[in-house]
Specification:
Elements (H helix, E strand, L loop, with lengths): L8 H14 L8 H6 L10 H10 L14 H25 L3 H29 L17 H25 L3 H27 L3
Helix pairs in contact: 1-5, 4-5, 4-6, 5-7, 6-7
Length: about 200
Amino acid sequence: MEEMTLCSPEHQEVFRRVWARVMGSEQEFSPDQSDRQESLEGDLPCGHLAELSLSTSPAVPPAAASEPECRDTRQLRRQVLEALEGWQCYRHLARRSQGGTAGILAAVASDQQRLARRLAAAYFLLTGVRYWPVSVLTAPAYSSRFAALRQRYQAEQAAHRAFLSAAQDSDHPDLSQLYRQLAAHCLNHCDQLRAVLERSSL
């Protein structure tokens, strides 16, 4: 079972001190790097998270695992898993598509993985715990490719609304900023999915 920590004042201070390293670090997760790390077998490498943990992560209190999480950390765990599920679905769709459609879906998949990594980095900064639950992912089930595209479009719209709501509710200004950025990514994904459907023969 994974170790959990509370959002204690010292953890919040660590969050504020190292957040600048994570924000603006999207170049660390370029599509080329993401594609080399796409295996779903076991934990995907998170070198930047391990690097932060060596110098800035506070010791995890032994009793923390039995204590409840704060709202932000519970929410982040759910968001990381949802982002990874979306990433896996886009990868499956890209592999079953051709030409320009495959390229668009592969690009959305790479962006979705970067989104998941940014959420995982935020979770690590708050808790000192790496959370990358690829081992629980299963093959996506959908009746048809078009049905899957429609489901992902609706999921992106819901994620956009959820990120904006989380940005307003979060106690961490930097986390609120991240949520607003990710909400914009969701709208971009909606545009790309619409483009795929418009160029496809329904």
